[in-house]
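One chain shown below:
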Amino acid sequence: MSQTVTARLADAAERALPGMIDDLRALVELETPSGDRDLLSAGLDGIEGWLARRLGAPETRVRYDGGSFGDVLEVSYPGTGAGTVLFVSHYDTVWPAGTLAGWPVTVEGDRFSGPGCFDMKAGIVQSAWALRLLRELDLPRPAVRMLLTGDEEIGSPASRPHIERASEGVDLTLVLEPSREGMPKTRRKGMGIFDVDVRGVESHAGLDPAAGASAVHALAQVVPALTALSAPELGTTVNVGLVSGGTGYNVVAGHARCGVDVRVQDPAEMARVDAGLAALAAADPRVAVRVTGGWNRPPMNPNPPSEKAFGLLREVAGELGASLEEVSVGGASDANFVSALGRPVLDGLGAVGAGPHSRDEHVLVGGTPRQVALVAGLMERIAGR
């Protein structure tokens, strides 16, 4: 891709910035909490209408029923050059209904603030504008498919099979999750969510303590065994984030439980952790320990086709006067699913900003044009091969 084309994309993205910010406001003002089926449905209706206004009617359109979760919308647009690019974006957020009433969208200087703006409604906006700019400048573009999912923040239980199906055979899957200060994320940890349930024997703590077998005391023994499964040198962390148990001060507890978050970078660590969980036991034979849950996402590590795509991205960035470094993060995304299948995927090409899942969530407005030009430039390069 010539420098002239790169400069044209960068200039067009700068001119389009007011429209992008208007679009981001419109999408953020559609409240779409992961656990509210009605709001998710209405929000996806709104996003689909917005896409039609920005890009016209899609060539194909399928909306998959998400059951108790948000629906999955898949639309496609024809290209004028080689290749197919898939955008995977989630429209659900961690913010409950009514959040906007106390935290309305605000734009102050370079800071756009609002629930879900950074994670990841800005990425949805940027994907549409990257395609729109290629059209406006009459530049070669690949065929584009967009997959919009409504359950990423709760583990993608309904959308995972659609993501895995849709990513098969495409030249590149792009996940415009937030960037790390403008840098893409090439490594993400896999994650597992587990519940440890401990069942003991209740008794009166004063009159007959020996008749009881405390589940709380046993859990206190199990927790160190859990945390001992951590191997930070391998990228494995174990966090016991929830603990509950017992029914009263004077009752030897018959039940206790804890919730555990496990993150791994090395796929081989999943089997080691599984074995450790299976071996959990209490010292008192009257106490039973049961582990439920499982692995939600495999780790994302660079595979050869993704490394090749990152090389192209780095070339485009250089023509925009920027340098890209690879970033590894502990959080997971839908890109993990694609990467684990050995398919080309790039992640973290979305908003520049900070504060995901916090009241400090914000997008830096000035970083938006470069991110859009970067994605558009990569698409143009794929189409021109």
Observations:
- DSSP finds ten helices and 18 strands in the chain.
- The longest strand covers residues 190-199.
- The CA atoms of residues 19 and 129 lie 9 Å apart.
- The domain at 5-188+300-384 is CATH 3.40.630.10 (Aminopeptidase).
